[in-house]
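Changelog note: in this version the structure field was regenerated for every chain. One regenerated record is shown below for reference.
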Amino acid sequence: MTNGPEVRYRVRGGNPLHGTVFVQGAKNAALKMIAASLLADTGRTVLRNVPPIEDVRRAVELAQAVGAKVEFHEPERTLVVDASQLTSPVLPAEVARKFRGSVLFVPALLHRLGEVVIEGRQHRARARGAGRYFVPEQDGCADHRGRHGFHHGPGR
């Protein structure tokens, strides 16, 4: 059973197909994986087929701002993250203000560092033990239409 239009291709002629198809990496998946890579306290995380777009570059900036070593090889679309030495719970205002995806970094930083500060927003989140945390609402964009409201974690 499918949800939506179904696409079918019928190949005739007895000739084998050959060639290369390039599939664009998904931005939203890449942003979540970059943020999740901060959970690893040892080793490196290697992400492949990462789209070289502005939101990914901002996510790289945020990861570097909190102390992760990040190498983005754009021509190869490969991102390498070493988050073993995170040094700061602060998400800088100049990046966080322009990047709604900054909220994706909150859980990993709470887990690793016990707190998160979103600069310029008067927001500070602290771990409360047993998987509980508190993060005040964050305005998502400059015109305040896109809002993220995170108020409690597991174990509510």
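Spot check on this record: Helices lie at 27-36, 54-65, 93-96, 106-113. Residues 54-65 form the longest helix (12 residues).
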